[in-house]
Design brief:
It contains 16 helices and 15 strands. By secondary structure, the chain is α/β, with parallel strands linked by helices. Strands 4-10-9-8-7-5-6 form a seven-stranded mixed sheet, with helices on both faces. Strands 1-2-3-13 form a four-stranded mixed sheet. Helix 5 packs across helix 12. The relative contact order is 0.16. The structure holds pyridoxal-5'-phosphate. The site of pyridoxal-5'-phosphate (PLP) has 14 residues, from helix 5. Pyridoxal-5'-phosphate binds next to helix 5.
Amino acid sequence: MSKPNNLESLWMPFTPNKTFKKDPRIIVKAKDMHFTSDDNRQILDGTAGLWCVNAGHGRKKIQEAVTQQIEELDYSPPFQFGHPKQFELANRLAEIFPEGMNHVFFSNSGSEAVDSALKIALAYQRARGHATKTRLIGRERGYHGVGFGGISVGGMVKNRMYFGSMLSGVDHLRHTHNPSVNAFSQGQPEHGAELADDLERLVQLHDASTIAAVIVEPIAGSTGVLPPPKGYLQRLRDICTKHDILLIFDEVISAFGRLGKATGSDYFGITPDIICCAKGLTNATIPMGATIVQDYIYESMLENADAPIELFHGYTYSGHPVACAAALATLDIYKEEGLFEHAGEQAPKIEKAAHSLKGTKHIVDIRNLGVIAALELEPRGNAVGARGFEVMKKAWDMGLMLRANGDTLAFSPPLIVQDNQIDEMFTTVKSALEQVD
Ligand SMILES: Cc1ncc(COP(=O)(O)O)c(C=O)c1O
């Protein structure tokens, strides 16, 4: 397959357009653990695309389900009408999400799942008679997608600074990254549980009667992979419970096996009030997001609604039949192939392989959890991100896709990853690091 002859019309997201178009990286096919580039090279997928192709590429079962669904029912409106698969999918998700989380609101992306969660939190507080609880708390370095809600509670500077004042009434916890005491931790770092007490400080400042919800990623991904310090999430849960504040886990990357369980909540043994997910829900074949809430939130909204429609929110493509078909087939694959368990088995091997790179040129920290690892590089002078970007390009030339978040190189391969592919990922990146200044 040839290169498109004009790259100009497309405005690429989160991409340096000028640089990319001079030296493009074009992907034309994918199967299992590999992409094929337009110059017909096999590229090992070290990132499951963007943390989303958890069952590997080109899964027949999903293709067939999608094809059949388009033939049978291509679309039906989600407002005031239903179709069977969206109910079936909601039930299936309720089965694998934490106990008591039996109500699912569908959207089309992680960003929408987050904005839906924030809106549900606000509407719920109002419905149950706590209308002053309107403040939302996020965390520095958090990534919750790109909607105005998500960037307001998010904490990545570049994603916020260009876009005005965003939502009002938002505050942030400090992030948990503390390499001075935690560098080269294997799995969850020892130090930093007390950072959850920032929430107590914000309660002192704003009063709990003004705070609706706190949102965090159980393991921060896009900011460069920050596993939560031991005890941190439990402490956050306890403080939320004490002050009657909702805890939202953004599990857009941690759900569907990334940590060896259906959810990060399950892995950490902490149950939030609301979970956002997307990505691995359909194995990335059809866009879909979901916001799953505790029964008491749904029941209270239904009971206390002041209008026949209990939640004035939804998308034309909420619970799209084709996305539902893809998600159902994806959940079947996860179960039939035991992929969450397989991920759990591969996790220590990834940990070992990643940490074996300690001492390699440029590396100042290595972090990992589940089927996730990150190598943090020393930035090159003032050119923050330049070294990470060059290693990513070098790895691509050498047949490996990794993700550079600034100077942090992230790995999150499909959960089907085999031992030899784990070796290949880290051998290739080591060699790429040695070739870059
Ligand atoms: C934790 C988290 N939340 C939300 C999102 C946004 O998802 P989407 O790009 O599907 O809108 C992402 C995407 O990487 C994410 O990692």
